[in-house]
User: Fold this.
Amino acid sequence: MPELFSAPWATAVGDALNASDAYREAAATWDGAIRLAARDVPGGGERAVWLDLHHGRCDETRAGEHALAAEAPFEIAAPVAVWTEVLAGRLDPLMGMMLGKLKVTGDMGQISRHVRAAKEMVACAASVETTMPDAG
Assistant:
């Protein structure tokens, strides 16, 4: 199983997005890369994945320094503990954004028009069996 926010995890999420009819339909009008960032990772630091998303498909994924350095018009960032709650289905991503647990940067108008796509993206990410980073 890939570790959360690792390169293999990013690839698996991209594959899950491309295999999802629900995501393809919900994100048919979405165009733009997004960075998902995990802060307060055990052992210190930050991890990120970058997803190049166009009209219901994921064309490329990046992780690590490549994801942190890549331009992204949108970013969703949270401590790894919050991402764990979101991916386990215990925290709705929209509620997490409204509560300030997930920090969102980018055109909020575009994001608000694509709430269903965001939820499907999270569902695809949650479908990837994942191990959590440890301090070791």
Summary: The two ends are 17 Å apart (CA to CA). The chain is about 40% helix and 20% strand. The helical segments are 7-19, 21-26, 65-69, 80-87, 93-98, 108-113, 115-126.
